[in-house]
Amino acid sequence: MYAYRALLLAGDGDLLLLDTPRNPSFERYCRELLKLGKVEICGPKAAQARSLALRCAGDEALLLKIAARARASGGLNLVPYMGTGGVWRLAGTIAARSGTEVRVAAPPPRLTRRANEKLWFAERVAELFGRHALPAAYSAFNLTALVRRLKLLAKHHPNVAVKLLDSSSSEGNFVFDSARIGPLSSGAACAEVQTTLRRAGWQGGFPLMVTGWESPVLASPSVQLWIPEPAAGLPIVEGVFDQLLVGTVARFGGAAPSTLPPNWLQCLAAEAVRLGHLLQELGYFGRCSFDAIILGDDLAKAQLHWIECNGRWGGVSIPLTLANRLVGNWTRRPFVVIDHVSPHMVPEDLTAFLDRMQTKLFIPGVRDTGMVVLSPLRIETGTGLMLMVLGESAADARTEAEAITTRFDETHAPAHERLG
How many other CB atoms are found less than 10 A from the CB of residue 238? Predict the structure, then answer.
């Protein structure tokens, strides 16, 4: 679903490595309507169950093409979703084949793993700001210890959670009702937790994080940063966004420029820069964001808790970078991200969708507000929408984004619901 978003970062003369079926309609949309440039798209022929980078590194024909491009250009910049070991291996292979310098716009693999690991990040937050800057969170190295900690936390929180350490977004969050898990025997609780995790694909690995699922949450801000090399200065805060979180596991449903008061925005930015500077001193380079919650009944007495680090590109940073490409500076035309799942949509060809939404589309040089498609898959599979909406102001973008999702839900709702 997300692979094609990399096309939104590419431009004239770039190579995009892709291992999903090609979508000519989306490629044409990016090239001709958004005018992002002519990008050459290619990928490995082998369909092995390995990462895209490793498959590329093992594809001789593809390596010859990339190495030739690197020699012709005098070098290459590799911009990956995340700085995995496979990405760095691919970079080294290209450098060896081409005899040119290949730079990777990401931190080295070990630091990438650490930055994205929730417990490691929690320890760094505690070192910088103290334990009060975190939710109650603990590591568990076996199922018995995990359940024991869950049952203790259940005495103080309406809900408790287990988190996989390196999962992205909410995919590794498992929330349990304290009123149910608390009274169970240890054996019954172990069985329930194990069944829940295994249904989601957990293979039995430890450690896991155990935490209280805190409430009431006033806001779920995300601070977007670019971390340059140290000689270029401190980490740059490119924006603070309010995340729309959906459901009990807080699935990412979209984001918009934060409406928090200036003092809160300043606090979030200042602490994020300190966190980013720590990573920078450890050798981090590239895209990064920090997610937090603001906890309490009112902002005057609320607490700031840092939740996780996203040491990679993501659901806000890609649209943010795209908005900068389209309008020069995203603050000129603030945007809202829509990551909307709809149970009632029907599959629709992207070209037909664009034709039908013609008057709502952002079109460079024609209409400098409106809708941008971030990925074609949800539209073409009928599962929802993945869009960005740019507006004259943040409020305008929010209003238009809400109108779009409401319109689609009403249009695609079953007949008895539309009539009711």
Answer: 20
